[in-house]
Amino acid sequence: GGKIFDGCHNLEKVEFAKDSQIASIGEKAFALCAELENIELSLGLQQVGPNAFDGCRILRSISLPDTCQSIGIWAFCNCSALNDITLSNRLEAIERGTFSGCTRLTEIRIPESVHHIDARAFYNCTALETVTLSSGLRTIGREAFAGCSALKIISIPETVTEICEDAFAGA
Q1: Which runs of E-coded beta strand occur in the chain?
Q2: pTM of the predicted model as reported, rounded to 2 decimal places
Q3: N or C: fewer beta carbons within 10 Å in the chain?
């Protein structure tokens, strides 16, 4: 369900049992949990909903299990302390604004399963220096990496057939 812990300002840590049957984290489930620093996701997780962790300002790392196939729009936007992201090897796309405003993120590796990086996916990730794109990628959306002013290294694979307007503006 959605908004389960939305705005729980004192919530610091969430652990799901290893044998948890939770397949989905709903829309805004942990949005604005200002003190959430650590969350351990269960192996069966398949989907993270839109804005699920929006505004979790001190969340430092996230590891999506390989069972996760989708992350909703703006799911981790404005997680300004987020500096360690491990994406699922089954993830199909990085949706609109997913990691927008993650200002401490310095590097990201996009798995081969990802075919599309949507608009503003990494918008204003001002510390992002290294982006590793894999050969499954076909499209880089509008302003996907715009405002990533620290970007130093990115190799665009030959499988990319479309780079949209302002994809790297201000990088």
Answers
A1: 13-15, 24-25, 38-40, 47-48, 61-63, 70-71, 84-86, 93-94, 107-109, 116-117, 130-132, 139-140, 153-155, 162-163
A2: 0.93
A3: N
